[in-house]
């Protein structure tokens, strides 16, 4: 998303970048160690260490590293038994990487809208849809894929309740929400990605922690973890010459990438702290403006991975006018995700609701929030935003 700018660098003409990786000495040290060890590919000590420490960090029993977040979701759906012709519920308001793996499997996405409170999957709409299916005798979706968009946890407890009631598995797309979780209610103390049967993370260059490109599958189920490991390594049977007992995938993370990831993981608290500080400063600076600020909900602890605001439509001046205004002032802002039901490959998918996600897209603007954003640069962003309304 934000990879138009070189890591750590300023954009053209001193543009303040939206979000760029934070790569320091620790990252350099681990990557160099991987290079010098000769283990640069998918065998090597950093992969296992990254998996072990990641599982520990998020509070899952197992973590299996993958080449991308999209690959993690693809394998996650296979683990949960998704096959051709199945329905899979997916949040409508999300990045396209959430849904493509459903299509890879020949399954049909059923797109459920967001709620205004969290900007994430609406538990009431999901309950209506599953209750409707039960009433008319329509097959249940195989999986409900819940996205925690922009670092904001979904209101997952009622989703868990309704999915348990109808026997539907949950896959959490936590690609954008590493470091976020719940602090009150039935899920108190849990982190996003560890509640559903399977959770998937991404370490793409724009995420809060990066491996250049990479992903992670987490689960508490021993068998699912073993199967994930098998499927991501070409379904190769150990110790038997080139025997592959099912169709597998070449989805393993490289040791080089895992070295980078381990360093980023060790700095995750620093990154989350920076995102919180940036979000808190924006919240104060914009408190009197006619903007909708990102959700702040007791017990749903967001990272504010991508600090985003909603622009009111006044005098025909909305999102595009604000984006243009900021661009002219060297501020690298960006629109939010176009909901999946407006994406050509998924235009025919059933939609439940559809107006909240669309409004987020039509009104949403993400503002610079790189973990290395200086207060002086943030003040420049604030002045640019305020001058739009004056
Ligand atoms: C980034 C992202 C993905 C895909 O991850 P990649 O590592 O880029 O393949 C999936 N879902 C969401 C919500 C994402 O933001």
TrEMBL record:
<keyword id="KW-0808">Transferase</keyword>
<dbReference type="GO" id="GO:0030170">
    <property type="term" value="F:pyridoxal phosphate binding"/>
</dbReference>
<dbReference type="GO" id="GO:0008483">
    <property type="term" value="F:transaminase activity"/>
</dbReference>
<protein>
    <submittedName>
        <fullName>Pyridoxal phosphate-dependent aminotransferase</fullName>
    </submittedName>
</protein>
<dbReference type="InterPro" id="IPR015421">
    <property type="entry name" value="PyrdxlP-dep_Trfase_major"/>
</dbReference>
<dbReference type="InterPro" id="IPR015422">
    <property type="entry name" value="PyrdxlP-dep_Trfase_small"/>
</dbReference>
<dbReference type="Pfam" id="PF01041">
    <property type="entry name" value="DegT_DnrJ_EryC1"/>
</dbReference>
<keyword id="KW-0032">Aminotransferase</keyword>
<dbReference type="InterPro" id="IPR000653">
    <property type="entry name" value="DegT/StrS_aminotransferase"/>
</dbReference>
<feature type="active site" description="Proton acceptor">
    <location>
        <position position="207"/>
    </location>
</feature>
<dbReference type="InterPro" id="IPR015424">
    <property type="entry name" value="PyrdxlP-dep_Trfase"/>
</dbReference>
<keyword id="KW-0663">Pyridoxal phosphate</keyword>
<feature type="modified residue" description="N6-(pyridoxal phosphate)lysine">
    <location>
        <position position="207"/>
    </location>
</feature>
<dbReference type="GO" id="GO:0000271">
    <property type="term" value="P:polysaccharide biosynthetic process"/>
</dbReference>
<comment type="similarity">
    <text>Belongs to the DegT/DnrJ/EryC1 family.</text>
</comment>
